[in-house]
Amino acid sequence: MGNHSNDSHTDAHPGWGRPLAQYYSAEYDSGPTLLDQKKSLDVSAIVALRTKARSGIQKICDLGERRGALPPSYSKIITLNILEAISKLVLFPKALSDYARPALVSGCIKLMAAVQESGKISPFSYEYGYLCFRILTIAMGVCLLERSNSLNLAASNMIAEPLADPIILLSKLVEQVVQIQIRDEDRGLVDNSYQGHRTDPLLGIVGLPALLEILYVDRKAFSIALMHTNTLGLAGVFFLLGRSLTNETHAAYTIVEMYCEGLWRYSNASAWDKVATHLLTDRYRELAKSTWKPTFVDLEDCVTILRASEIALAPHDRRIPGPFDISAIPVLMGFAMPFIESGSEAFLPSFLDTTISCMWNAILGGQQPLDRMVDAVRDNFYHISKILACVARQFSFDDPIHKQIIGASFKKDLFDLTATLIMMITPRSGNSYFFKDAQNLFSKFAKLFSSEDLQDTFGDYFPDWLKYADYIFSCASTLELSKEDEDFFTEAIRCWNAIGELCIIADTRGALTLA
User: Phi and psi (nearest 5°) for 108?
Assistant: First the structure.
């Protein structure tokens, strides 16, 4: 059975603070921005913040350089207030160099490993672990910029654009450095100054394999965190993690597969460094060969990944910029199928809701080739049909999950989506096989209910079906059709009638024919 969330950590932890969703909502969604917070600071407050931050950095560096386990009192030494102060130091361009401490990264990794949920390492469940990750991300980026002699440029960019989010400015410059570094390395154009540091490709950072393990073990919460925090660019993190890879094997997966999992999850939700993450993916995919595939934790985890895809496909939402291929959605659904099990039903409606939204976004975006679009929607219909068949076997007619599934699917205008695809298909496209897949899908919806309950269940959606029935029939009746076109429209009408009879019409009442 999957490890489905039960929202067990809804209260603040005495040492690790609020659950990440609560923290992010309060600090970023509804609270003042970092720039607004900076404006509210007077000179004495700025001095106090920088003093606290620098003192905290030194304490974390001491932990990073320390051998063995953390001292029992670590959370009293490195408090949430200290972590907040360190994370806000990025607001001050001239203080960027304070992050250029490899031991700061190592110390944050140790602190992240100490944050646990239900006995398992889960730094992304609480604000303490997330702040540690935020700090190490900034520090790794600054270390890369310092090594490439770009740190002064980063500070200058922040001074020149005081109204821009400093994290975004930093992330973009780090991505540029990573792109240059990857391309130069791949072409053998590493300059002499870098070659002198070739013996230490990790920039003196200790503990990167441990960070990779943390990202893998906590991958579900990591993906949820990415959905909240998509301004945090991780190109520098994954660039350095890639350099730490070995041939070591952990249980049933290799460290390269762990890396590919983390990189894939990030690239699926990344906002600012698509080019760098694609370059890294091309570099390390071959190392993993055919052994890597997404390792979802449970159906809730699948929903999180699909939501990122939904955003990427949205025509007017550029939080996660494209290009994104609709063909990826049925692949994700295929990997999610093993998690359609007892205990997962709470997430089935949102899973179907998000899948249908992905298809709508792809259609409305107009960027997908028609044949690929039809194939992807057909494959999605196939997977949804399998899910519905599984639900019909596992749950009785009177189980509320059936109506929840209908509500999630049909309120997303599933009739409209199906009819839109039918009308996009042309007689000579060779895509008429879609008709059978559409009929099969709606037959599986109908089997969720007894025959006596079908009209009551689907009656509200009858106007949607009838609207397109009239439209398809009128098109076929008013156009001068060749024999081939007439056969195509006849098949389309048969398909639409069959869908109506399965879900809405108990008899042949209202069915259409083409004379």
Answer: -65, -35
Listed residues 400, 418, 450: the one ending a domain: 450
The sign of the torsion formed by the CA atoms of 130, 133, 135, 138 equals negative
Q: Is the separation of the CB atoms in 111 and 70 below 8 Å?
A: yes
Q: Do 329 and 441 fall into the same domain?
A: yes
Same domain, 172 and 313: no
Range of the domain at 265: 16-295
What is the mean pLDDT of the segment spanning 433-461?
90
**277 and 376: one domain?**
no
* DSSP per-residue letters across 313-358: H-TT--SS-S---TTHHHHHHHHHGGG-STT-GGGHHHHHHHHHHH
* Span 193-206, average pLDDT: 63
Query: Is residue 143 located within the same domain as residue 219?
Result: yes
Contact 17, 80 (CB under 8 A): yes
Tens digit of pLDDT for each residue in 53-108? 999 999 999 999 998 878 888 888 999 999 999 999 999 999 999 999 999 999 99
CA 424 to chain centroid, in Å, comes to 29
Residue partners of 365: CB distance under 8 A and separation at least 6: 313, 314, 315
Q: Encoding tokens for residue 168?
A: 């975004």
Co-location of 289 and 208 in the same domain: yes
Q: What is the mean pLDDT of the chain?
A: 85
219-228 helix and 299-313 helix, angle to the nearest 10 degrees: 30
Question: Among the three residues 237, 262, 295, which one is the final residue of a domain in this structure?
Answer: 295
- Cα Rg of the chain (Å, integer): 27
pTM above 0.85, yes or no: no
- Alpha carbons 342 and 23: distance in angstroms, whole number: 31
The residues facing 253 across adjacent strands are 250
Please tell me whether residue 364 adopts helix, strand or coil conformation.
helix
Question: In sequence order, what are the residues at sequence separation of 6 or more whose Cβ sits closer than 8 angstroms to the Cβ of residue 7?
Answer: none
User: At 458, phi and psi to the nearest 5?
Assistant: -105, 0
* Domains identified in the chain, total number: 2
Residue among 165, 263, 280, 279 at smallest CA distance from 222: 263
pLDDT computed for residue 194 by the predictor: 45
pLDDT of residue 321: 62
C-alpha span between 378 and 163 (Å, rounded): 47
What whole-number distance in Å separates Cα of residue 161 and Cα of residue 180? 24
Dihedrals phi, psi of 452, to nearest 5 degrees = -70, -25
Burial of 478 (0-12, 13-18, 19+ CB in 10 A): exposed
